[in-house]
Design brief:
heterodimer; A: 308 residues; alpha/beta; Rossmann fold; eight-stranded mixed sheet; 8 strands; 35% helix; 12% strand; disordered N terminus; B: 390 residues; 2 domains; six-stranded mixed sheet; 12 helices; 16 strands; 41% helix; 20% strand; binds thiamine diphosphate; binds iron/sulfur cluster
């Protein structure tokens, strides 16, 4: 048939030497995406993904045409559409026996807010997609406005007196879809990060990974403190590291060690309203852990869930 | 070839399915689908179709339906969908995306009034709203015209000289839910007519790029300019697609437009879709009475065939446009296009008539009244509203 020669040149998964995140990308210094993308690359090894990225800082990372900050084929989609575009890519790839992972890389705006219906539908259809939300808890691209992921008390350009509402429980939302795997990722816990990405890679169907992603520009923090900040978020219990299997079995990967959350808050000017009194944010942490501990006790993960 | 009685929606569903199936030895096909009256039967038909290498993804919105089509095309597959009215409005952002990405998706637009107030009947305002979205647009009158145009659309859209998506429009209910006799070809004929779909800029692992990333004004201008140049290739590619259509299917569908009794006409009426069928009958009757009237059925709307239209209008002194759509604060959209076409050209009295908005039946009496009005006129006026209920 006409066109076949050209088609055989479209390689399935031929390994090539380039990193997923290339030099010359436009991330700010200390951006959580920089570590996240490098570890994602490391976890996948020689296998290159297809990246599907909606409007957000993550697509600005690519830089300007015709260069690309990504060393993998990348589709820049409209803000709400990454899981639906990824569905089409995954559908055609799989029917042609091309197995490379199709990865959505989206900010919290594209995940918690405008893209939530699209995300929910792709999860409900159990598409063969790994969805990674790098959660910087604001709309970074447009200059740091509040999102459904912004924590209580945080000052953003549209919540000058601190956000009143709670952060949405996106992990709970995704678990309610009974997807095969959902997990949180920390750029302060490398082994845990790599293991989870590798587990997600071999799991089937729709997989969801949530990475708390420092944004020195919006968090008003020091770029060289980014990994330390995430470690503090984990140790204080603000950002729990855990996994949910099939939406019902829970495993907590790291127990908080009584580090006061104030050590995390006081290095970020976005939390200046809470300096000296973490108040409602501490209440949020406590209720989050009551729920999580309960789930992990009553519905624990079993031994097959995460081979080391 | 089989002769069948089928509804417009069934015809469109069958045409899309055969086109998708024809890509089975290549990268297969994939469509995003979401229901809306009066298009729903198309996606129901597709969902029940047993593709050798294809998938219909039942999404949660039209916005995602087009996103799935884009993903499929970005992975090198053949893609298509269907929508109407508010569905198309909801899809808008991704309709523009598909155009600017230059992905050769084919979308059936079953024309329906935009709401609120809610109205499910025909009005071309929904697809015409997409005129600036870098999509080709065809408007069809009969069920056969619809089938044939869908087939040609895949050829034209996927031709490297064009590489742009296509809307094929039909009238809601009047076409979508009535039956007409249609000749369906065999799958082998469709296989012979449609080459394997090749999207040259699909995502490649050996040449990783970012599709749709940032551009600066100079590249953006070039991108738009190239789209314009591709639009200018459409008529040549379409004529080739018609020739090849005739070779394979042994009939010749209308191409850019259909002219009837225009050669020596003093008065010409322009319309699209099924309105043009009624108009044709009225013109025939008036010709029999010796009146020098003619009609042009506009079929290709994007790119707008200015040269061909000027030629068809020829020496006629009066042109009336029947617009089943309304751009508030301006008038009919076809009229705007014809006015631009006549700009600086022959001295023609051009009058717009807004008819059948919201699906009002446009009867031979309505059209006769319009022709009477046009023949009496000495000057053109603002677009005329014709109360078609009378
Ligand atoms: C439909 C639509 N609305 C608004 C925008 C403007 N916009 C672009 S990126 C963005 C925020 C992105 O925030 P997030 O997803 O959290 O990612 P981040 O930029 O923080 O990495 C907004 C509002 C857009 N591109 N598309
Ligand atoms: S604004 Fe924040 S999220 Fe965006 S690139 Fe800079 S540090 Fe990263």
């Amino acid at each position: 048939m006409e066109g076949h020669d050209e088609m055989s040149a479209i390689t399935p998964s031929k390994p090539y030497k380039t990193h997923l995140l290339r030099p010359g990308n436009t991330n700010c210094a200390g951006c959580g995406m920089s570590i996240g993308l490098q570890w994602l690359d490391e976890a996948l090894g020689d296998e290159k993904p297809v990246m599907v990225i909606p409007s957000c800082c993550g697509i600005v990372t690519a830089g300007a045409f015709p260069t690309s900050g990504y060393g993998a084929p990348t589709a820049a989609t409209t803000f709400a559409s990454s899981p639906a575009v990824a569905t089409g890519i995954s559908a055609i790839s799989r029917m042609n026996d091309i197995d490379n992972p199709v990865i959505c890389w989206a900010g919290d705006g594209g995940t918690y807010d405008i893209g939530l219906a699209t995300l929910s539908a792709a999860a409900e259809r159990n598409e063969d997609i790994i969805y990674i939300c790098y959660d910087n808890e604001i709309y970074g691209n447009t200059g740091g406005q509040r999102s459904g992921a912004t924590p209580t008390g945080s000052v953003t350009s549209t919540t000058p007196h601190g956000k009143e509402e709670r952060k949405k429980d996106i992990m709970g939302i995704m678990a309610a879809h009974r997807i095969s795997y959902a997990a949180t990722l920390s750029i302060g816990h490398r082994k845990d990060f790599l293991r989870k990405v590798r587990f997600a890679r071999q799991a089937k169907g729709f997989r969801f990974l949530l990475m708390l992603s420092p944004c020195p520009t919006g968090w008003k923090s020091e770029p060289d403190q980014s990994t330390e900040l995430i470690e503090l978020a984990v140790r204080s219990g603000l950002f729990p590291l855990y996994e949910i299997f099939d939406g019902v079995r829970y495993r907590i990967n790291f127990q908080p060690d009584n580090t006061p959350v104030s050590t995390y808050l006081e290095q970020q000017k976005r939390f200046r309203q809470l300096w000296g009194d973490p108040g409602r944010l501490q209440a949020f942490i406590d209720s989050q852990w009551r729920h999580l501990d309960g789930m992990a006790t009553v519905f624990p993960a079993n031994i097959q869930d995460a081979p080391g | 070839m089989s002769r069948t009685l089928a509804t417009g929606d069934h015809v469109a569903g069958h045409a899309l399915a055969m086109a998708g199936e024809a890509n089975r030895d290549a990268r297969g096909c994939c469509a995003g689908a979401y229901p809306i009256t009066p298009q729903t039967e198309i996606i129901e038909y597709l969902s029940a179709y047993d593709f050798t290498k294809g998938r219909i993804v039942l999404v949660e919105s039209e916005h995602s339906a087009m996103a799935v089509c884009m993903g499929a095309a970005l992975a090198g597959g053949r893609s298509f969908t269907a929508s109407s009215s508010n569905g198309m409005a909801y899809m808008t952002e991704n309709i523009f995306s598909a155009g600017y990405y230059r992905l050769p998706t084919v979308m059936i637009a079953v024309n329906r009034t935009l709401g609120p107030p809610w109205n499910i009947w025909v009005d071309q305002g929904d697809s015409l709203m997409m005129r600036d979205a870098a999509w080709l647009q065809f408007y069809c009158d009969t069920h056969q015209d619809l089938f044939d145009t869908i087939m040609m659309s895949f050829r034209v859209a996927e031709d490297p000289r064009v590489m742009l998506p296509v809307i094929v429009a039909m009238d809601g209910f009047v076409t979508s839910h009535t039956q007409m006799v249609v000749d369906f070809p065999t799958q082998e004929q469709v296989d012979a007519y449609l080459p394997a779909c090749v999207v040259p800029h699909h995502l490649k692992h050996d040449h990783p790029t970012t599709m749709g990333g940032m551009t600066f004004p100079n590249e953006t201008e070039l991108h738009r300019f190239e789209i314009q140049q591709s639009m200018e290739n459409v008529i040549t590619v379409l004529e080739e697609a018609r020739d090849e259509f005739e070779n394979v299917f042994e009939r010749r569908p209308a191409g850019v437009m259909e002219c009837y009794e225009t050669d020596d006409a003093e008065t010409i009426l322009i319309a699209c879709n099924t309105m043009a069928k009624t108009l044709k009958n009225v013109v025939r009757e008036r010709r029999e009475k010796g009146e020098k009237v003619g009609m042009i059925r506009t079929k290709l709307f994007r790119p707008f065939p200015r040269k061909e239209l000027l030629q068809a209008i020829g020496q006629s002194s009066k042109v009336g446009v029947l617009d089943r759509n309304h751009s508030p604060g301006s008038g009919g959209i076809f009229w705007q296009e014809v006015a631009t076409t006549l700009q600086g050209g022959p001295d023609v009295l051009l009058q717009d008539y807004l008819v059948g908005l919201g699906g009002g039946d446009v009867t031979p009496e309505n059209i006769n009244a319009i022709i009477d009005d046009l023949q009496r006129r000495e000057t053109a006026s603002e677009p005329q509203w014709k109360d078609t209920t009378k």
